[in-house]
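User: Quick sanity check before I run a bigger batch. Here is a single chain. Can you write out its predicted 3D structure?
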Amino acid sequence: MSIANDTLSKIDEPLIMSRKEYNRFKILKILNKHGPQRFKDLERLAGKSPRGLNLMLKDLLSQKRIAKIIHEGHQAYEITDNGTKKYKILEFIYHKRTEMLEDGGQYHNDYSKQNLSVISTYYPWGIEDDLILDKTMIDANPITKDTAIAVNEFLFEKICDDVKNKKIKLDKTKHGSVILELSIDYPELIKSIERNSLEKYKKVTKEELDICENMDNGTAYDEERRLIHQYREGKITYAKFKKHLKAFLKTIGAEDVRHPDEFVTHHRFWNVNQCGQEKADHYKQTQRYKTGILSSQDKS
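Assistant: Done. Predicted structure follows.
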């Protein structure tokens, strides 16, 4: 574990969870990583006694973090959406930070020194930024202290605006802390800078939003994916993107109703048993459509 030279306080085991929390976190981690598991497999992977494991599973079941299912002909346990959310929170807040430091990462307390600077003038501040870097990021930290100060001041000014505009109400009787987590995925950050993601996000079109929603729902057609990819790669203009998309959707027809369970993920072939042969043929026909190759007049 490495503590930066400019840290104001030492930490020995930052954000370590209790043993009870860790044991349940370990079960969620196994199920999240390996999928549904039988009791005996969980017993082996978690290294717990049958009695101890049984108590943990009962606790997680009552919290709806996991569920009992039949998997490959045997009773098994799988992580629920609720459990996945809980696992991700625990993994980031507790485990990830500790792993980063134990693997040679670096911790900076009051990184920007904005809090120290303000209170040294005997004015209250109330905002402090801590920074944790992976070992590999120590020499590639993308956040300068000036940037951290700017974030501090921006946050303070926005809270003041919200108070002034009565969006929030301050309560002097309350005592506690608030943590706002900002995590940077460095490779993704580089991609977003190269593709100017923020500016493009602010200008995203209705057509793009519709396709993104269909992709989230698992109901996007291959042609929709192809068109949005071409547009975002700069291979076609917005006018052509909109024109070709409109033409493609016209070939599908207004009667088309998308059902996620009627699509096979990614490949998007109709499930004949659910939809019938006629709809399956209709879908495959539309998938052959390429603007300028198969027109709506050619489609029988």
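Residues 156 and 291 are 51 Å apart (CA to CA).

User: Great, the batch can go ahead then.
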